[in-house]
Write a structure and sequence with these properties.
Number of helices: 3
Structural class: mainly alpha
Radius of gyration: 20 Å
Distance between the termini: 60 Å
Shape: elongated
């Protein structure tokens, strides 16, 4: 079985168990994950997310939309240093 077939065979329950194992660093039975197992599980979680979830719901997603910065004036340039405002 190749990697793509393995990913396609993962059920949502298995995905959640892998994700939980990565988060806690141990399997559901309490046995610790090795560094290699943790890395492999993390890769599987990321790949499963890419196949089954929209981008904004995936593990590791970072929202990149422009936003207002704390204490900034619209006329200020974000590239220039400015003093902090302690209020």
């Amino acid at each position: 079985m190749d990697y793509q077939q393995l990913l396609k065979s993962l059920t949502p329950d298995i995905y959640e168990n892998l994700k939980r194992a990565v988060e806690l660093g141990k399997w559901p039975n309490g046995e610790r994950l090795s560094a290699e197992q943790r890395e492999t599980c993390m890769q599987a979680v990321i790949a499963w997310d890419a196949m089954h979830k929209p981008e904004e719901e995936r593990t590791g997603y970072i929202h990149t939309e422009k936003h207002d910065h704390c204490g900034s004036d619209e006329s200020d340039s974000l590239d220039e240093p400015r003093p902090l405002k302690w209020s």
